Amino acid sequence: MDETKTYVKFQPNEAFLESLLSMGITESHAHEALFCTGNESVEAAISYVFTNLLQDSTDDACLVQRGATGDASNEENLKRYKMTFVVNTALKMGVGKIAAQVAHACLGLYREMRVRGEREDALNEWDYFGEKKIVLKGDNTEHLEELFNKAKELNVPGYLVSDAGHTQIPAGSVTVLSVFGEEEEVNAITGNLSLL
After folding, report:
1. For this UniProt entry, which residues form the secretion signal (predicted)?
2. pLDDT digits (tens, 9 = 90+) for 3-18
3. For the chain, which end, N or C, has fewer CB atoms within 10 Å of the first or last residue's CB respectively?
């Protein structure tokens, strides 16, 4: 019995493709991203591009720095956002514990900002441009609380994680501070700290 298989050529969603191309993403990257994400959405394709296709491509990385139009003259108008995480090193948490606490800090701040509708455009731009995140060393609980209060004074969103106490450290321990905003305003709070 002769079995024949029919293969259908992948057809990207034209609206999604057009959106990706208008952002300066190359046609080949756009096609690959839409294919690999199942034509799900522009956001999924963008995430795929930045996660998988631009890691070692300096030419394409320049597109990110120049903004959606690809116009170098717009580079100076592009705001850069980041989220920093200050870990309470006095608690001597293990690597896995730190990773979990940083995840709590990221999700906690992100959710809180989304629920409040706080800085939505900034969050969207941060999402689009790769969600820059930095993990830093904090001295102790008092240090994290001091930085948190400074963030509040400067009207910069911040979130303190208090541990539930199920593992390694006592309940209520302040483990991580997360802060989000434009790089300059975040640096005014955490810019003098060392990388973890």
Report:
1. none
2. 444 445 678 898 988 8
3. N
